[in-house]
Amino acid sequence: MIMIAKDKFNKLFINKIFIRIFWMAIFMLIWEMIYLSHSFSPLILPSLGTILKSMYSNLLSGELIKETLYSLNLIFKGLGIGIIISITLASLSFVSKLFEGLVETLTAIAHPLPGIALLPLIILWLGATPHAIVFIIIHSVVWPLALNTYSGFKSIPKVYRQIGENYELSILQIIYHILIPASLPYFLTGLKIGWARAWRALISAEMIFGATGENGGLGWFIFKRRVFMDTPGIFAGLIVIVLIGILVENLVIVNLEKLTIRKWGMSI
Amino acid sequence: MTKIFQGKYKAILLIFLYFLYFSSLLMGCSHKNEEKVTERLRIAEQYGLAYAPLQIMKTNKILEKNLPSIEISWQQVSNTTAIREAMLSNKIDAGFMAIPPFLIGLDKGMEWKIASGLSYSPTKLITNKNNIKSLKDFTKEDKIALPQPGSVQHILLSMACEKELGDSHKLDNLILTLSHPDAMNSLLSGNGVTAHFASPPYIGEELKDDKMHLVLDGRNVMEGDFTFIVGVTTKELYTKNPKVYYGFVKSISEAIDFINKNTEKSAEILAPLYNLSKEETYKLLTAEGNKYNTKVEGLEKFSQFMLKNKYISKNYTLKEVLWNDNDSKR
């Protein structure tokens, strides 16, 4: 009996979610203790209670949800276009050596540039519209994704392509049926990187940018809270950013991996 | 002797040395802090016509005269929010800002109060679109540039919206946060923002262009004069360092006196700092609506409006936001 209980206890402890919740609880405890020790002004470190209250009231007023949906809308638009452009660039590089050189040069120049650094320039060219922000998202996504996808293409054993040629598939069919599925691990890595860069670039751009029309997104939400000294509100916004990051990285992308590359035995 | 430098002894020796080194650093740290609290004045420095007395204070070394043996340091800060944060993290003792951001901070628990008024300044909403003659002509496609939400420009705009459109938040979604130079460039370029709530010298620069015209004057919104910039200090400075505090207030008053009595000489001092000619600077200093005074006017009006529109949670009278009532009544 004791052995079974011990075994169950061990299994519970090792369960990943439980471990995460455990550490989160410890973190929240430390936070609250620091708050209660009054070593910092509540304007710098508010209590968990006020933060949760602020989250609740912002959710209720609909503002937090509205701004979050606005941000998500922008980033998925950018991601979608970015994915299409990346696959196109990778495919063209694969087919033509001249184009490969072009893409490599562009990547060398553009990849190190943070989207935020480009923002003032983009505003001058595209005006202060959501298009400017979507452009920055695309810029953050395309370079790592195209790079990774192209690496993926290059790593595919030649035999696969030759099989495709045996079947007399056109180059587009080869790309769709063979290259993309075979390079999916690389693609998904690139997607993870691209998503992370794009999400950060989006939030920072929104902070600098301001409201474009009705909404300004999560970054603008946090900026407004900062200006009005609503520190609990700032934390509420940050929590939402973290939650979305976790959701996308751990739910969407991991499940994508499970459905494709893990099922096919391409990676663990 | 040589055994000390071998193997595990070496490790112990090293750890001991590091420990000595770090503890001496820490000792130095806390010692410095205690000694410095009464001997320093850290001021947030900002540029612009409205802050002219500060530049005069610096150039004429007024603070050094009134507070000998006190360490004076000027720190560059970009905006009011940065001043708030620097005060919270105990990096500065005094800063200058407009009344609404001061009230917002006070309302949220900042332990600060007004030490003195600094300047009155004209502030106007200028547009580059011919068909916009008043606030109701703004459409969803237009953008209004101002320094930040919660700034005096934003509050003035909201006041005007309430008066003319019945809803103080009506134009909130048209706001774009831009610094004055960026906003001016965007306005003048023609394909950026459609309006800019400007201060001098940007007002003058913008109105030079024929395509620009005035939509709103801050003075009309407030129905009278109001103090644009006030000087604010932390509670610590007032309670723990009254000598330094009073020296500071006296210096502000002397700098303002100097500008008012020696306007030409002041223009000469300020011109290179603004990259303008002496004549242009003089014109700006003596322009209508631009004056320097230690009085604080208009606070109660701001407070009532901001309370009504939920920017702050309670009303503030002038008396309760001044450290010392007598200093600012002239």
Oligomer: heterodimer
User: How would the global form of chain B be characterised?
Assistant: globular
Biggest beta sheet summary of chain A: none
User: What gyration radius of chain B follows from the Cα positions, in whole Å?
Assistant: 24 Å
CA gyration radius of chain A, whole angstroms: 23 Å
Instruction: Tell me the strand percentage band of chain B.
Output: 15-25%
Compact description:
The complex is a heterodimer of chains A (268) and B (330). By secondary structure, chain A is an all-alpha fold.
What does this structure look like?
The complex is a heterodimer of chains A (268) and B (330). With 268 residues, chain A is mostly helical. Helix content of chain A is 83%, strand content 0%. In chain A, helix 4 crosses helix 7, helix 4 crosses helix 10 and helix 8 packs antiparallel against helix 9. The longest helix of chain A is centred in the first third of the chain and has 33 residues. Chain B has 330 residues and is of the alpha/beta class. Chain B is built from 15 helices and eleven strands. A five-stranded mixed beta sheet of chain B has the order 7-6-8-5-9, sandwiched between helices. In chain B, helix 6 links the parallel strand 6 and strand 7. In chain B, helix 2 crosses helix 11, helix 11 crosses helix 12 and helix 12 crosses helix 13. The longest helix of chain B is centred in the first third of the chain and has 30 residues. The interface between A and B is medium-sized, with 21 and 26 residues.
